[in-house]
Amino acid sequence: MTRPFSPDDAATAWGHPEPLAVESAPVPEYGTGSLADLLPTLAAGMGVAETTAAIGELAPVDRACVFLIDGLGWEQLKAHPADAPYLTSLLGSSRGGTGRPITAGYPATTATSLASVGTGLPPGAHGLPGYTVRNPATGELMNQLRWQPYTDPRAWQPHPTVFQLAQQAGVHAAQVSSPAFQNTPLTKVALSGGTFVGRLTGEERMDLAAEQLAAADRALVYTYYSELDGAGHRYGVDSDTWRGQLMHVDRLVQRLAEQLPPHSALYVTADHGMVDIPFDEQHRIDFDEDWELRAGVALLGGEGRARHVYAVPGAEDDVLTCWREVLGEQFWVASRDEALAAGWFGPRVDERVYARIGDVVAAARDDVLLIASEQEPKESLMVGNHGSMTPAEQLVPLLEVRS
User: Which listed residue, of 29, 209, 275, 308, carries a Cα 20 to 30 Å from 22's Cα?
Assistant: First the structure.
């Protein structure tokens, strides 16, 4: 029996496939299983006011350490068991023993994810909704990872961090990271509160994180490792360099796990996964060379797989129509209000954040990248990329070791 010929068939037959539906994008699990829910869940288990145990699978613990490994996606970890035997042995512990991952949040990028972790809020509330976004006060693009051009961190992100709330509740809060991150604006808005201790090597950080965890009966400790992400960007997530970094990370996690004091839990997670994009015109579309995509666009923000598009005033509808026609089979393309209604940035978007989000938002579904070779020469040459809502980018582990 054959099915009736549908309008979708007609569109395909005439060479005009329908663009991806905005509502078909796999929205992160805000409120039940996203990075923004992790620290509030742990803090709530320690009795910290103004926090909620949103990830119901996690049992309370007196001492919790979160080890965030930049770029360690769930799918990438599962694909390399020989390079990460210890981490692989913990896969079944993920998300409270369910063996399931959590989601990073949209966009799946470092500045956004670290702010979600530290504040316990989704991007629409904390206000770092992309790699680069428009500052409504100046009209300029702001890089939220490098904090350029500079703007007042507290005005940009005024909410308290979970570390600050924990410290106020008498919980020992500490961050153990590279000394280079101690005074950055991103650290101030996302991870401030408690004690910051800088150490250069990963081994030193693991040892000190264990010491900080044992420093009080209730403790919330955060530590971080960035080099895996750098290897992925430069060489790809299946390169020898990336696998070598994964081996090193595997040893670091085991080192920390073996030093946990009593009544402690270690949670290993990440800010995003990553996908390798081939270097050809089919997979890398150059905005700077495409007159159709440039028409009516005042600023191009975001990154290659998660774009914020700021239109010339009055051209918003035309830009949306054009981007859907050109990219709609490979990207979820939405107007700002459509993306907000679909919950891409969380269940709510604060008023101060609204205009930071693009008039048009484009999130890649396929293995494709929208580069800007002239405006973003370094980013356009990266092998590994991230930002969108695909499983390879969104899904991150929440591995657990308890003592």
Answer: 275
